[in-house]
Amino acid sequence: MQNQNVALLDAICGNGVRVSIMDRLSSVDLSTFNSSEYIILPGFCDVHVHFREPGFSYKETIFSGSLAAARGGYTAVCTMPNLNPVPDTKAHLKEQLDLIREDGLIHIYPYGTITMGQKGENLSDMKGLAPQVIAFTDDGKGVQRTELMRNAMKQAKQLNKLIVAHCEDENLLNGGYIHDGDYARDNHHRGIPSESEWKQLQRDLTLVKETGCAYHACHISTKESVELIRKAKAQKLNVTCETAPHYLLMDDSYLQEDGRYKMNPPLRDRADREALIEGLKDGTIDMIATDHAPHSAEEKSKGLDGSSFGIVGLETAFPLLYTYLVKENIISLEKLMQLLVSNPRKRFKIPMTTDFSVWDMRQSYLIDPEEFQSQGKATPFSGWKTYGKCIATVCDGKLVWLEKVRNSK
């Protein structure tokens, strides 16, 4: 197993970082288990999470979110700005930064908004925010006005920052809340058409070509989006994208009348899921992000129609992807590490650190939301059998997760 660790770390990080990780491993007290029986992986990086503070601590806090991340093997995350106050000015951002400094267990990089209040009317203080945010996004809402997005891209280019886009044309939603497919029609639900995503992505890519902005598309879910990104890359546009585990492992045939199956974008159809997997394999899709979006139990208890959009994912992402993509020989473990470690860090200019996690890959178990460290428990993967248990996570030389030793603040 030691040779496997060395080879894998070299493939992902390069020799220098691998040596540092191995040195740091020897300095951390993990004497509760025999390390020769486990695999060591670099700290994962998720560029799309919602930690809900400030403003919505009943859903999640910086502490509970970062503890959930540590339990999932993540040591770096980028937090979305749908908060209160919205980080659209330096003063508003400071509230979040203070909480991160006080309560964060891992590396947490906040986004700034594209528009003031995420209202899609006026640009945020992008210049003032730029030194302290990882990128700019209005995630949760698409920027509807073309001229406003054009101006945002021009400003972001001047600031050498990414525009990170939630692609959604609100004129095409038609009051929908799940995919406009067979399940919606058979069960009398209002559907969200695929065009609501890919039409706005198409618009944005035209603006990227015009402005030269660096652009990243959030949580793509449709086959048309995959093809648009593929063509944009062939044209040498400065474009990347992500998808999420649920879009790779589920489609709308998995839906049940339960709020834990409701997210935005919604689970699409089988052809979309297959296109996403092909996009992973051929490099069109650059990374996998969880879109970890916790809500209260009450907010997720109102079925597909009435529940809030969003599911949690930090604690289940790697075991699910390892079990259903790697063990099924769809992608290699090395490829999965590129998607979870090196690609997101490179694109978002997040340093490749000597953080790491330790995994027992032989251990199988059923996903149980009651074991989550996140305050959110809504997952469509409850009861799924997975392999891979995170035994320990080390960030900046500190043990931030140890299985069976429940961390407390």
Structural class: alpha/beta
**Largest beta-sheet characterization:** 4 strands, antiparallel
The number of helices is: 14
Mean pLDDT: 92
Global outline: globular
Assign a percent range to the helix content.
Answer: 25-40%
Helix-strand pattern, N to C?
A: HHEEHEHEHHEEHEHEHEHHEHHHEEE
Low-confidence stretches: 405-409
Beta-strand content bin: 15-25%
Q: What does the radius of gyration come to?
A: 20 Å
Distance between the termini: 34 Å
Spatial order of the strands in the main sheet?
1-11-12-13
The number of strands is 13
What does this structure look like?
- This protein has 409 residues and is an alpha/beta fold.
- It has 14 helices and 13 strands.
- It has helices spanning 2-13, 15-27, 62-71, 90-103, 126-129, 146-159, 182-186, 195-211, 223-234, 245-249, 270-282, 303-306, 317-326, 333-347, and strands at residues 39-42, 44-49, 74-79, 107-110, 163-165, 178-179, 191-192, 215-217, 239-243, 287-288, 356-366, 385-395, 398-402.
- The protein has a four-stranded antiparallel β-sheet with strand order 1-11-12-13.
- Helix 4 links the parallel strand 3 and strand 4.
- The chain is globular, with a radius of gyration of 20 Å.
- It starts with a helix and ends in a 7-residue tail after the last strand.
Quick description:
With 409 residues, the chain is an alpha/beta fold. It has 14 helices and 13 strands. The strands form four sheets. It has a four-stranded antiparallel β-sheet. Strands 5-8-9-10 form a four-stranded parallel β-sheet. Strands 2-3-4 form a three-stranded parallel β-sheet.
